[in-house]
Amino acid sequence: MDKIAPTLKELKTNFNKGISKDVSFRKAQLHALAKGVSDMASELKAGCMKDLGRCEFFTEIGEMSGIIDHCHHNLEHLDDFVKDVYFDPPLLLAPNSTRIKYEPLGVVLIFGSWNYPYYVTLKPLVQAIASGNCAIIKPSEMSPESSAVV
Q1: What is the mean pLDDT of residues 70-91?
Q2: Is 54's pLDDT higher than 90?
Q3: pLDDT confidence of 12, banded at 50, 70, 90?
């Protein structure tokens, strides 16, 4: 816990400043994540090969493309995701108005798995970023090469 405490404190401070609430900030982070996965393709594939003996094709199709597609999907729909949803209240509660306002909750912890070290770790990160939360990632120690790449 002593190693995580400074990072957790920094993330909570940044979250409380509202940095991650800004939609343009979220989009920039999602772009950067998708670009990072694309740019580090050879390192990601090598990590899976060393840890799991998994071929490059399967790593690209089974993990990397899903993460990149998920980033693009969230980028495409993020403006709709953050909109408030208004609906009419029951007649008994009239003349009130009702809405659902989507708000980020804070800092999340994401645990990775050893058998899909990128997809199970980075796909939840995409959701955390898209929803405006800050995240700490804990890759699996059972796949050390892949964890080092993450």
Answers
A1: 92
A2: yes
A3: very high
The CATH label, of 3.40.605.10, 3.30.460.10, 3.30.70.141, 3.40.50.970, for the domain at 20-149 is 3.40.605.10
Q: Residue length, the chain? A: 150
CB-based contacts of 42, cutoff 8 Å, min separation 6 = none
Q: What does the chain look like in DSSP terms, one character per residue?
A: -TTTHHHHHHHHHHHHHTGGG-HHHHHHHHHHHHHHHHHTHHHHHHHHHHHH---HHHHIIIIIHHHHHHHHHHHHHHHHHTS-EEEPPPGGGTT--EEE-----SEEEEE--SSSTTHHHHHHHHHHHHTT-EEEEE--TTSHHHHHH-
Tokens of 97: 């108005």
